[in-house]
Design a protein that fits this description.
203 residues; 51% helix; globular; alpha+beta; Chemotaxis protein chec
Length: 203
Amino acid sequence: MKLTPERLDALTELINIGVGQAAGTLSQMLEFTIKLKVPLVKILSPQLLQQELRGRLGQQCLSSVKLEFSGSFSGNAQLVFPTESAATLVSLLTGEESETNDLDALRIGTLTEVGNIVINGVMGSISNILTQPINYNLPNYIEQDIEHLLLSSISEQNYKEVLLAQSQFDIEELEVKGDIILFFNVGSLDSFLEAIDELCDRY
């Protein structure tokens, strides 16, 4: 499985559009400007994936909203924050101060809703631009370290290669950082890349 320069350019632009739309929605909610970085797109083994994400997110406990999707493509999308960033974000949205990293039901619900908006924005853009139907499950909120958070779901599906599409956003005024990460199941990775090729052919 290879990412040709044409595929890489198309994937980067596609994800940029989706992340940009999602960030716009989140910016309106928070009333702060969100700065985006160009997405990192790679095909990796689970072992290399863990190393890649640990370098960015560190060893600490992470807060993640995970949404599984199916249809023309299947996999899962995650909005991942260091737990302190998640607590800051929730405090801004709820008006409640958090002195600990423990999140009650209200705060978990708030983060889940933020993740739902952001991830649906990204996946909706992918579905619309590629004209491929995608169905979504309800999002789940999880707090774990990076090894258990990301690789447990991968090993359950017996992944050999994973398409990592990772976009970082920063809210400088709040010192909040987060990553939007897409994982495509091995069985649907070919279909996704074929749809990317068709998009390149049209343009």
